[in-house]
Amino acid sequence: MVVETAAGGILFLLARVLLGGVLAFTGLNHFSDVEGMAGYAGAKGLPAPKLAVVASGVLLVFSGLGIVLGVVPVIAAGAAAVFLLVSAVTFHDFWAVPDDQAQTEMTQFLKNVALAGGTLAFVALGGQAWPYAVGIGLF
To answer: Any stretches that span the bilayer, and where are they (predicted)?
Structure first.
């Protein structure tokens, strides 16, 4: 088991809800502004930007809900980690943008890296029983 105390179980659930909720909410936002996000993705050189926005929205919703519910948590958190790290470097390249955009891109880059760190912690714990979880996993 990931935690041995009732308080630890509640805190672990809270961590899952906070991180997974942010991921799922971010994914839902992809669907509310597909055109705008596709324009940004296209400007960054991503091929098929509309498809990429929709696919990344699905990935983020799946990952977030998987973490919150404890359903295939290794896959859910691992997919989120890969997406967050790739998108940090690909889309939030603060080192390659004009000075007036650098701070915003650095903030987004650091946010993605921090979230990736959280998802990697859940990957590491994915093979153990999670308290207050559905408990469907492959590992």
So the answer is: 6-31, 51-69, 75-97, 109-130
Q: Is 139 helix (H, G, I), strand (E, B) or coil?
A: coil
Segment 6-41, tens digit of pLDDT? 999 999 999 999 999 999 999 999 999 999 999 999
d(Cα 83, Cα 120) in Å, to the nearest integer?
12
- Residue 2: phi, psi to the nearest 5? -65, -45
DSSP reduced 3-state for 136: strand
How far is Cα 69 from Cα 33, in angstroms, rounded to an integer? 26
Q: In sequence order, what DSSP letters do the residues of 34-59 get, joined into one string?
A: HHHHHHHHHHTT-SSHHHHHHHHHHH
**Model pLDDT for residues 43-54, shown as the tens digit of each residue:** 999 999 999 999
pTM of the model: 0.93
Residue with tokens 């994914």: 27
Question: Token pair 């999670």 is at which residue?
Answer: 130
Q: How far apart are CA 20 and CA 32, in angstroms?
A: 19
Please work out, in degrees rounded to the nearest 5, the angle formed at the alpha carbon of residue 57 by the alpha carbons of 53 and 62: 150
Rounded distance between C-alpha atoms, residue 118 and residue 20, angstroms: 10
